[in-house]
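#structure-requests
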Amino acid sequence: MRFEPKLIRGHLVRRYKRFLADVRLDAGPEVTAHCPNPGSMLDVGIPGQPVALSHSDNPKRKLAYTWEMIELDGGWVAVHTGRTNALVEEALAAGGIEELAGFAHLRREVRQGASRLDFELEGADGQKTFIEVKNVTLTDGGHRAIFPDSVTVRGQKHLRELMTVAAAGHRAVMLFIVNRNDCDEFSPADQIDPEYGRLLRQAASRGVEILAYRTRVSPKQVTVDRSIRTVLEQ
């Protein structure tokens, strides 16, 4: 996923009211940008850090700027959760997620029970694979990515739906996209949402595949890089 036009650099002043961020542009004034991340943004909402924004010329938009990423310890972290599914779809089309390669058809936002799952893949043999995608930016303070960064009732519901899919004989996949360059492992954030951690382990025991992929993040582009190890043991 390439950024055209180029992202605009600045420094974060503050994030507030969940979807707003004040940014002091490196070559301009202070602006208010849309913050497209509904989570707590632990680790990645640090005032004073370099950030990169996209800009829209659409006159109907209330805020012309959108916060895309932040630089931490010399590496970039993509915070725009709304771009994650497009990034995954791009990687699927290119065969960049090895475990999910070789499908014949792809559908987005598929109704499953009381939820919508992000993707449905269908193989040439008619086998269906249902995929839920989560954007990950939080770490345990080292090189392990963890999710979620706040209690997620919606995320818990998605895991229950994936278990229903697996029980019906379909392939079910929980895909975590770690949108930073510095992580080699992934685990559930039990200290933040213990119920999500319990359900993730239950899902794994009931046939749901748990995949975690790291991305390469820069102000020029974000691409899916490689799989990382999932650690479910407590």
